[in-house]
Fold this protein.
Amino acid sequence: MFFVKTLEHRIPLHPSYFASDAQQHILAKLYADKEGSNTGTELIIAIIDVEDISEPKVVPGTGQAEYDVSYRAIVWRPFKGEVVDALVTNVVSTGFFADVGGMKVFVSKSMIPPQLKYTVDGSTPSFTDNAEQTVERNSQVRIRIKGIRSEIGAMFAIGSIREDYLGPLLQ
Amino acid sequence: MASFMNQEFPDEEEEDDFNPAQQDDSDNENDDAPDADDDDDNVPSKNARRGRDDRAGDERSSSKRAQDEDEGDDDDDEEEELEEEEEEEEEEEEEDDDDDDIEGQPSRKRRKKQRRNQFIDVEAEVDEEDEEEPEEDDDLPGEEMHPDDLQELPIGADRDDRKHRELDRQREAQLQVDAEEEAARLKERYGRQARASGATGAIVPQRLLLPGAEDPRIWRMKCRPGKEREIINALRNRTIQYAGSRDPVEIISAFERGGTNSPMAGNIYVEARQVADVEKALNGINHVFMGTRPFMVPMEEMPDLLKVRKTKHLEEGMYVRVRRGHYQGDLGCVDEVEANGTDIVVRLVPRLDYGLNEDSNAPTMDEILPNGQKRKRIKPITARPPPRLFNENDAKKKHAKYLQKGALTNNIWTYQGKEYVDGFLMEAFKISGLQIDDVNPTLEEVSRFQSGEDGAGNMDLQSLAATLKGSRGGDFLPGDKVELFRGEQRGVTGRSVQVYGDVVKIKVDNNHGALSGQTIEAPIKDLRKLFREGDHVKVIGGSKYTDEVGMVVKIKDDRVTILTDSNQQEITVFSRDLREAEDSGGATSDSKYALFDLVQLDASTVGCVIKVDRESLRVLDQTSNIRSLLPTNISNLIERRKNAVATDRDGNEMKVDDMIKEYSGEQKSGRVLHLHRNFVFAHDRESTENAGVWVSRNTNVITVAAKGGRANSTGVDLTKMNPAMKRTGAGAAGMAPPQQKGRDRLIGKTVKIRQGPNKGFIGIVKDATADIAKVELHAKNKIITVQKDMLSMIDANTGKVIEGGIQNLSLGRGGAPGKTPGYGGGSQTPARGFGSMPSGGRTPAYAMGGGRTPAWKQDAGGRTPGYASGGQTAYGGGGLGGSTSYGGGTSYGGATSYGGGSVWGGAGGQSTWNPNTAGGRTPAYASANSGSKTPAYGGLEAPTPGFNSAPTPGAYQDYQTPGDFRDAPTPGVRNSYQTPGGFPETPGPYSAETPGDFGPRYD
């Protein structure tokens, strides 16, 4: 789910940048650091605006100055039970992996409808019912998130397509 | 032990009841009827019976012999009965042992009877027996009555008697055969009654059998744990050995409880009358700790000591482990339990190599030598083949001659004398060869027994449950989510609150109606842990996946499939082995090898660990091969040598943690992990292949950046821009005082020791290094080593301390008093300001380091850049010499050797980073200092091309080469340097610069 969220970030600045354009440095750094980053629970998609850049404070010992920047950003946070669209990245015999934004989702064979069978035709492994539904690499699927694991800077989830209206999207 | 007890028991009893002193080895004497009459009627008869029974046991072997001699138409049972009857007769009739052999024969019997008639007063005898008869009738069960009946008969009727007895025996036999049926029938008919009355019937004798005060006691002796059985056997041998001697072992029984892992290990128990008997019996037997006194077991604890632990009943389908042999430790499935309960046919996954590793020249296992003996097979030392189902095709390859097809069904084979059914080995074991308790089969082992394709699918859960029964204690912890899966409250879920014994208190979840929120108790056997798909769980035990963390993807009954975090594999474990995991994180391994460790595989091969699994390691060896190894295959770990140095393709130094790049091939880059011989193992964070590890030869990589440095290609290098960092960096290295070359000038000087134990001593320096000196003391003929800073130089003649003498010497200054270089400021005359020279007004030649040779000048001059103060003051600019120096430089016009001037540019460039400099960039400042500043020196614009060009290698090299220095300090140069002319404040000086050196850079 997407949110607009006010976040804070503390940026240290090297003394060599202490000049009138320090603010530009800070902003550039903020965008570079934060946009597209993953906090473990949420993904920062875009920074909308910067609300405030605090007065810098020199850190004793290093000479670097720290700026506290508060900014608004669009974040995406997955929830257990949420239905999301995903792009299949890899199909293995035990299930398939898909990407939902920056999050990797594994859909186990036990969470794939039984009529979708694992087949290796040619060199592309896929789950298919030999009719209209096929899950292979680069196909889009609709997934319900069953569980999320958070790590520092990464998220991982397992999902299910064993439900009505879930599974490969018709293109 | 049983026979041991039997052997001793009657003796003791009789000894006690009768007269111990007269104990005789002849059993026959003891139970004489007259004796029995004299004593209390009940007791002796009981004793007599016991004695007889025991003797019957003893003489069983002889009876066997008798049987051989006999016509042999009686079966064993009858024989024994007969034996007993014979005993009776023996005792009563006081016959010889010979009769044993002939008793069974009717004709002899007759003869015997007749013979007896000749010598014995039968009438009297009969009378006596008559008196006794009623009593025995009461006491003895039916079988013992036959002889008594016999006694009643007239003498001539003994033939009839024999027939009677035969009839009786037949009846008896029939009765025994039918006994079980009969029992079943009776139980069916009177079952209810039997239950009511049976209870008391069973209890009463139990209670009466409990030991009393007059019974023998049990003593406990300490012994070496694990040697209990050995001791008991030794004791038994001793008892047998001394049985007939004058000094028999007078203990009643001895036993031990449990094996080595039982709580009673290290103890043996001896039953005896007196403690002295125990000590005597055990004296001299190995492993018994005679130092400790025997401990008398309290009477109330004696029954407990002998309580028979119920051995686990083996059922078909249960899992066991093989204790020894080829399949030691392997899991087996009980296929058949023989009726005797000790022979068990076990189904095993065979470990066969089908002769593939066999030496074809080696003797086969059943080769028979000409002399008829089997040659002992020398067992080849090979690893045990992995467990794999039997495959007849493999067997046919080399061992077709050992392979036979089983009859009838198609998947039974006999191979090397063993039977394989459906790929499994069927092997019979004694129960002692199997481990029945603590089997703890893992799911993978169990799944091998499932012939299905993926094992876990069609697992025999019932059999597994049978094995796992009883091992469930402690599986539940407070806080676990649990579910009742049977019983009335089936389906109820909740969280365990408290676990005690086999009961778990559960706080029921909210969606269970009336029960919601209540705390109920449930037995452990009705509970299982509850997980939901997506739960993050950790394996806590019971399988090889211990400590693996993952997310639940599938739940079926109590089997949970989880996707591991570490390598995204699906594993199936029992829910009892799982716990909810709060933390993420991979499996913490107890392997002694960690990721990226360098390990020695064999004498010439090393490898870098790229994956640590629970049981195996993946290693990238020096030839870029990936190997999967067991930790045991690794000979040792190679310590990471942090200071190992190698040279790369360009001959540059390469150290651990340096960034390197492959010169050819894929041009992989990475950080050096290990340097070993001429191989470098590097780690690339970006790569996932082999965990980012790659290996190459030293000569095939180039160093991109040394540790701490950064690759040149990645944008602006702050370390270059930051004067603070630069000072310590490579650029500043030239600024440090160079090491003094040649002979230390302190040598030969007279010094005084200022500190330390030798304080006050005066001596002559004999040798010196940078910071220590060897001083030959004047007072003692001794050379001692002293820190230089603990010395002060004195005048050899006057003894006066020369202040700063040593420092000046080492700094290359003349022995003159070292005033701080004139920081007086711009107002000083240049000559004065030129520094530490005692007299600024000296001639240029003198100024050249006190008239020293150029070689000496190198000392001082070389240091000049470092001693910026010295140089700077020369131009009167407080700390801003850099800027002024240019003025100086220009003043020489075409002094070619003044390439050194660029050095000053470098220094000046640095100082532009100094905020002060920036502040002083105003014209006013410039004029205040030296006026020679040019706009090019403008503060923050310092990194102008002009600035940057200053530290170009060329400039540095010019400066650093001694040749430059030698050139630079020519008197003329120096001299003019110091002249006021050196401060031209007009722009002109710049145009006067030597174009080769400065022109391009300061454009």
